[in-house]
## 1
Amino acid sequence: MNQTTALSPEQNQPFQRMMANAQGINAGAVAIESERAIAEARGQMQLAKMFPRDLNAAYAELMDACKLPALAEVAFYNVPQGGSKVSGPSIRLAEEVARVYGNFEFGHRELSRVEATPDAFGRSEIEVYAWDKEKNNRSIRQITVLHVLDTKDGPRRLRDQKDIDNKIANVASKQARGRILALMPKWFVEAAVQQCKRTLAGNNELPLSERIRRMTQAFAPYGVTAEHLEHHLGHPLDQTLSDELVDLTGIFNALKEGAKPSEYFQIAESADTTGAELTQQARQAAQLTDQTQQQQQQTLKAEPQQRARRAATVKKAETEAQPEQQQQQQELTPPADENQHAAAEPAQEQGEQQQPQAAQTDVF
């Protein structure tokens, strides 16, 4: 006779039993957090069903956005890979597509982190995801991000929390592009790409020659000259077509993201200037400017004090010189009594001379 033994709830749920036995983990807190996440996801899906997207309105809004030069200029990327160049819609265009599509969520979360040791770099395990809430489609990828920055002098360890977060966000944004485009309708993305190309090619008030000149000036801070651009295109800049300008725009966006000019042009690696290095140079220049301004402000604040000290010194010197000046004046000026006596004598003589005249007048 077969006997059946009733299993306890913990035996029926081996995952919870494993989590409860793990050291340093509160099984109750894990269960509460799981229930909260499930309830939140269910609520978001219900809202997406209550307010479904309108593809016609989303398409019209996307076309209006792609007509703006501000979006079209950053809508493409161009990176070298395996001896050739790979181009396509950039993360900025993917973000705009996801925004107008509606009921869509994307991002990344850090799953774990290992601090650096003397023998190894630090690293973080992150999960990049995109989620179509209305159709409940998800695209997820987990990657490892090393806490290191590639420079001309070799890899540099990242120790500051801000630098590590920036590195993780930079890597995650590039991976999010693929996750977003994987869930988007292909015709929707292609329409945005073509509209951005038309914006760059023709829907611009500036002539093509002026836009090429501006593009040449934009490449100059990275050490890329007109000769480098002509060698890359295979013809003089005056013969550049609108499609080639789109390709140069993608390369310029890649340089801003930190790519090396030597990956696209025949430039010595020692002359490479990446976007990160330009940013660092700009920060250093700004710091020098701030220090100069602070010194000027301190000088301006000190000038009134210096003037006051100089005025006090002059006043003190004048005060000390006053007794000597008074003594000199007293020596040069005769006594007042002598002056009065000298002035009184002529007056007396005049009075004596006038008295007989007055008597004669009285007689007549």
Note: The first helix runs from residue 9 to 12.
## 2
Amino acid sequence: MSHQERIADLYLRLSLDREGKTAIERQEFDCRAWAERNGLEVRKVHIDQGRSGYKPVDRAGFDAAISALTTGTVGTLVVWKVDRLSRHGMSQVGQVLDQVDKAGGRIVFGGCGGRMSAAGRSYVCQGRRLGRPCPAHTTAFIAAVDRAVVDAFGTRLAATGPGDPLLDAIAERWVTRHHPEIMRERATIQAALDDADARLVDLEEARYLRGEFQGPEPVKRWDRLHNQLTARVNGLRHNLAHIPLPRADISPLLKTVRSPEAWSATSVDDQRNLLVLALDAVIVRPAEGRRGYRFDPDARLQFVWAVEPEPAPID
């Protein structure tokens, strides 16, 4: 392998159109992971931030990335997903690929980001099943993924102790599920309290930091507004205190998860209900040409726990 073939650039784009946005951080993480798994050294990261492929604007990052590829500076350009190249459709993407192919380079896609669903014995890309193109098409045996998820779930919970943020998150979600009316009422009061607190802080800053409300009459008006907001804050705090959080004893849940016999005796629906208390997402990565090898959960799966920031919105 030549030096050029061992070097790769990354191209990332944050879309601001109505389809939403995929975090630059998630794109870079996935693309770097792909490059590392394939023995490539990342030379440079090209970014177009806050630009939409729908708009007729110059994309400096895109132009620089394609230039590096077509001039032979690098042999590979890693893009998170095909729609990061262009929102104008596959025809324009095809033109770019033709241009790169003539120069002897290659564009690879380091991620997909779509949901997966069961098809026969495997989880497959849902977009692919619906007929949409998926350059990072991924499949994985359901039994292997489910077993790995359960093992990771049990291992993660076995490592928790009193005060662990994950246990707190599980307890909060359990309470929300079993006492939705109480939690909605608390959320409504808390939102109103946060707003009143913010308005009170702004009012105090207006007088003491920004120098507003100068003179006898403005000061009287400030006093009146301050008293009203203070009374509202105190009233909302009082109301919130009289709707205490229900207690959540999740010890039976933990015993079920930590006991293989108890877990096996639990219905599939109940197992899923327990899993979503602790897991926000399970990301399945492509096998990278290792078809026929034993499923490696460490290489293929990424777990997003309830207390961790999700790499990206999952469509």
Note: The chain has three domains: 4-109, 116-161+251-305, 180-241.
## 3
Amino acid sequence: MSDFDVRWALISDRDSITKLIRTPGVKWFGNIRQKFYGTDSLFNCYQTHRMVAHSVETSKLVAYAEFRTYPSITALPNDCWLEWLSVRYCLPMPISWLNTLFFNFCIYKSECPEVLAQVLQEVFYLENRATYFITVKMPNVKQQAHLKEYYGDLEKLCKIYYPREYSINNNFNTQSLYIVERFDMLPKITYRKALAEDNDDIIAIQEVEMPELREELGDFYIAEELMHQEREPQEEGDLLVVAEMNNKCQETELAIFIWMTTNFDIRYYVCNYEMGSFGNLVKFDPRMSFHYETLTVSSVHRRAAASMFTTDALEDLDAMTIVGGLQRNDSGMSVASVGKMKVSSINGTIDDAHVSKANKFYMREVLYSKFKNILEIWTTI
């Protein structure tokens, strides 16, 4: 069982975080100066994840950490860090915008160094696409004792990379990167089909969250289901899977149980949930019979693909397809003006000049997944 409870930080945690920052003897790395200004300075800057860790035994706060999509370097523009890394460092791993987060700040009690690993593991679980966490260590300078950073515990969990100009003889006090890799932190998991002898372990896992299942179905309902599947192999629809991993004593233990089934009503989920980004749970099969719908196109007007994803364009699409109504004359789909959108010079990222009150950003991914093929085909014509 974990020694710490790691979760997202809340506004209500500000006082306890400030108290931790001012506690004598704590260890930390990152920019701590602005956090000495009090509780009002903690949640001012953007952070992708703010994590706190409490001791399970005492329920006291023992660590606070911040993760972000760009490094905490004032002189470096937020969208230029990838070019900065490629110029200053020679890294062997495929760092990209999608697989990297920056571990910019962490403070923890000196008697709990193992909390670092659990914080990193929790964020890796939250960010399933993240492969690397990078901490930028600045050159050592003389400063007061309460501002001195400590990287000794982090070094045990990561690999250290030095810039191209580093020299152990002439230029050793330089910037460096501490890179934590996902597969070094997360335990290796082995999946297999569940067996009848796994019944007790599975029941123990489920009893933590749903104790009513054991009271209602008995102590052997998992074994009974598995034995039924063995007797009736022709009945398809349910698949029970377990996953094993090594614990702290390097002993194999059952840690995950998955019950998958095809016996559910697709229409219920499509009607009651936003399933458009998942293709409405329907996958096109060219081997099955299907129908072509012919459209007559009278005219074609070329416009930038980016103009289809502005705030105004999403407002119009929402009005026409959900609420109903007429398209406005100042529509972003009709005119892509500079005042309505701004396209960044890197990767064509769209930054809206203003944001609508309703939160319709979820529509961007859905629209792109539907229009992607149309745009690709059109550009080849």
Note: Residues 322-357 have pLDDT under 50 and may be disordered.
